[in-house]
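Q: Structure for this?
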Amino acid sequence: MQTPAPCDYERATSVEGAIASLQRVGSSARIIAGGHSLIPMMKLRLATPEHLIDINDLHELSYITDHGTEIRIGALTRHVELLTSELLKSKLPVFADAEEVIADPVVRNRGTIGGSLCQADPAEDLSSVCSALKATVVLKGPDGERTVPLSEFHVGPFMTVVADAEILTEVRIPVKPGAGSAHEKVERRAGDFAIAAASAAVWIDGGTIADAGIALSAVGPKPIEVTRAEELLKGKSPSEELFEQAGQIASEDCMPAADGRGPIDYKRHLAAVLTKRALRRACARALHQEA
Amino acid sequence: MELTITINGQPVTRDVEPRQLLVHYIRDTPGLTGTHWGCDTSNCGACVVLMDGQPVKSCTTLAAMAVGHEIETVESLEQDGRLDPIQQGFHELHALHCGFCTPGMLMTTRALLNENPNPTEAEIRTAISGGICRCTGYKNIVAAVRWAAEHQPATTTQEV
């Protein structure tokens, strides 16, 4: 029988109240939303918070809204909502790609985007999705709020820049014309964490790639942003040769560790292949040529 | 902490530790051992119950998190001695063998049918992908859900 260690529990009724509790209790407090990462970690005693602050009643943190130049997603938005959102399907299809292969439908009824990002599991999919999209997150604390780009959000495995008294409230994703995005993943069995996964976003202007984002999951201590490949793509026309080169860079720049999911050379190989596939699909979507 | 959770329409009050998992809270309630406690890691789906009509894994939900929500367990399916069509479907088409996964499968597919009264085989297989059956296999379970879809009582389909 797996049981979490003893802890206190309270249910937040406002974001401000949650922040006040975090401040009062200190580093032994943790926010709990879906709980589908935190509770398993607590059962294994890998996480031993002494005080849980349940934010499931904060419905004001559950939304996907279009603000023209950006799409804003509330931290409490659940996986199932990311999967079924028509707005995301049309503007940011990378989300549906990833959500289809995150856990299973029952888990997706509970897990949230904020929880996924804050859990900072290096093999988790949404972190690379948000990295590739050049998203920023909003962190609220006792002294107000700050925004942090995804590139600076993760510090290491299961570690983020979120301070003890801060709560992630929102993810902001820039929306630019000519966008296409895709997520590709290889896992051992349906619903598992990735052996490797790649997210790609491109913004195509007049037939050439104006900007690109590529991020990898499960092949490093945190999401790997393949900036060298992003630079390579800029100003060029999409082509198989270009995708191949970007994949080669991804395989060189990732930092996989050998584990039960596979040896290093296999993961590097996957990084190359998945980057190539994700770019191919992202470009096809940007050019409305998806088969 | 004292919790009151509505399970199958009945308020159940008990003093438990905050770390108590929903699956144990339910199973410790007299007459409600139908919800099974399986892998304890949110992989197997034997513990699935409905929370406000949505299937959730009760081994990965704290009991305290269920306060204020409607919980439905497998015991809610049969009414006045009449099996729910999904139970009848499992019976007709031999969709269980040892029966361990069955409560979770029943609740997951009951929720599917409430939302989508006429699911395709692919939709059924996706819906039950969070459940693991180690003896019957999935073929008969899928067939049983199709059977239930074709034998929904009028009241159930009208509610959808």
